[in-house]
Structure formats: C-alpha cells, structure tokens
Amino acid sequence: MKRENEYTRLIKTEAKRLDFLSCGISKADFLEEEAPRLEKWLSKNMHGEMAYMENHFDKRLDPRLLVDGAKSVISLLLNYHPEETQNEDTYKISKYAYGNDYHHVIKAKLRQLQKFVSEEIGEVNGRAFVDSAPVLDKAWAAKSGLGWMGKHSNLLTKEVGSFYFIAELIIDLELEYDTPVTDHCGTCTACIDACPTEAIVEPYVVDGSKCISYFTIELKNEIPTSVKGQFDDWVFGCDVCQDVCPWNRFSKSHNEPLFNPHPDLLSMTKKDWEDITEDVFKKVFQKSAVKRTKFSGLKRNINFLK
Fold first, then answer.
1. Do strands 126-129 and 164-171 pair parallel, antiparallel, or not at all (unpaired)?
2. What is the CATH code for 3-86+93-171?
3. Which of 58, 68, 131, 193 is catalytic?
4. Is residue 178 flagged as an active site residue?
5. Residue 167's beta-bridge partner residues?
6. Are 208 and 214 in contact (CB under 8 A)?
7. Per-residue model confidence (pLDDT) at position 2
8. Where in the chain is the domain with CATH 3.40.109?
9. Tens digits of residue pLDDT in 123-182
10. CB-based contacts of 238, cutoff 8 Å, min separation 6
11. How far is Cα 22 from Cα 233, in angstroms, rounded to an integer?
C-alpha cells in the first residue's frame, strides 16, 4: 500500500473514532472556480456590513497562504441535528446554537486529530480551522466529496442532509484525494420559495445582507423597518431553508452531549423570551453561540418581532 493511502486510511479512521460524521480530503491548491464567484458576490455588496469578508481575499482562495508548504485540506463534518426542538409557538433560535458553542467543541476534536497525526505519522505541520479564519469551508467540503452545494448555498449530503458543522485541518502532508459528488437538487426550489426575506436571489446565490441570520447576528445597528414582519419569529439565526429541504428528511440526531440544549431553552414561551433578564440570558446561553449577539442584541431582536 502506498504511504499516502495508508496515512489517509489512518486519518479517516481516527476522524470516525472522534465522532465526525465524515472526512474528505482535497489537494491544497488555488480554488479557481470560487475566485470569480467570490469576487462577484463581494462586488454586489451581498456581505452587507460583514467587512471582514473583504479581507484576505487571496488567503480565502489558497490554503498554501495559510499554512507553509500545505499539501492537503482535510474537511470534516460534525452533526448537530437535535433530538428535540423548541416549542411550536415561541421565538426561535437556529438549531446549531442549542448547545455549547461549536467552535470550542470542534477545536478540541481537531486538536486530538492533529495530535494523532503527529504521533502516528511523524512531524506534520498544520492548522485547524473552525469557521473563524479566511477558509471557504463549504467549497473545500464539496471539493473533498462530502456533499454538493445546495441551491441555498449550504452543503448537502444524500445520507444526512445539511445539519452539520464543517471544519478543516490543513497540513503539509500528501494524502490520497477524494473527488466531488454530483448535484442532486434537481428542479427543486423549496428553499428559494420558503425564504422569508427572499435572500436566495437565484439558485446557489444567497444575498447575505438579506438573510435573517445576518440581521439577527451580524448586523450591529438597528434592524431596518423594511423587513418588519418577515422574520417568522427567528431571534437568532434561521433554519427555514434547511427545514424545508427534502434531503433533511434523512437527518439523524447527533450524539454529542455538549450540543444538547440547556433544559430551560426548549420550554421557553414567547413571554419568557420577552421578559428575559441578563441573569437568565447568562444562565441559559452561558456556553452557547447565542452569546455572540450579546444580551442587548437579543433584546433588540425580540423587541423587533413584538
């Protein structure tokens, strides 16, 4: 067996042991197809006030600028689909924020994987990335054969849908590379038709500045009155395009205890949300990604919906 094949097998086996849903590997190279797409998206100001999206344009497209001598991009998926969801008639938060902040949970797993690589293979230089650096994670996951980019611009997988996080390990080790899978969206337009703010402006293109997630998390100023009445009770993030996707019929519940919601969250009524105090906010969302919007941001979102 070639050395690259053996190393690849070891890494994928360990990723599975660490409870990653799947692991795919691509050659660390310039993302040629993504470059004009990203440039066009930015030029149309679809990133709104997310100015950081304009930074490090070259690094977003070439992992070799992030890790010296990078040879491989290891893409990993981690399931977050919950067993139980919130009450029907309440303010909603995106399912990914139910439990502990995913950045910390996944980083810990990636550190274990990195340690394993060093111990089993030898001195390998690399960096772990979890949605906090200029890496086009969905593009790399698609290139690595983990799924295809859906019309809602989320990665989709036949077996499990799209309720998972994507992370990367970029390393200076040659491995066996996977190939992309085909698109299985067909003529379906469920996500486009269901988007409350019409943010999916055309198949595969999301205007980030129109997305409910942008308004409730990224936007720091007041939410414009022009979108009043369009939020469908979402106060942090939005799952509509994923909830209506036929492929998510195959979603299975995660088995990561750290992603389980705080017991109080699932039973919160609209009144509980409207009366929320900073102490309750800290108690329920102490370790959640919801902290990102801060108490003042969450109150702003709730008041906007009242």
1. antiparallel
2. 3.40.109
3. 131
4. no
5. 76
6. yes
7. 77
8. 3-86+93-171
9. 999 999 998 789 999 999 999 999 999 999 999 999 999 999 999 999 999 999 999 999
10. 94, 196, 211, 212, 213, 216, 231, 232
11. 33
